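re: ur question from earlier - yeah i can do the single chain one, its not a big deal. heres the input i used so u can compare w yours
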Amino acid sequence: MSVSKEQIKEYCKKRYVEPARYRGDSHVAIRSSDVLEAFGLAPDDTIVCEALWSNQFEYENYLFRVSNSCQKQNEVSVMVYQVLALEGDD
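and the output i got, formated as tokens:
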């Protein structure tokens, strides 16, 4: 099964970002291993970090990257973002 970075971004938006925003969470954390498992990908696949390590993902979802561990290969990577207010929110 071929998975694109865009599919990963959309999945993470729907599965992690939107629920965190709805709950009013100030931060959201995304574990690469959870996303890889959801798509049936190998644990050492780097596509999640490649997809989420982009300014585009942050910009489109009103996020600010607080920390990540994507530089370390063969480890579970965790990306933590601050959830920013949407345009027009009080």
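The beta strands are 27-31, 63-67, 78-83. not sure if urs matches, ping me
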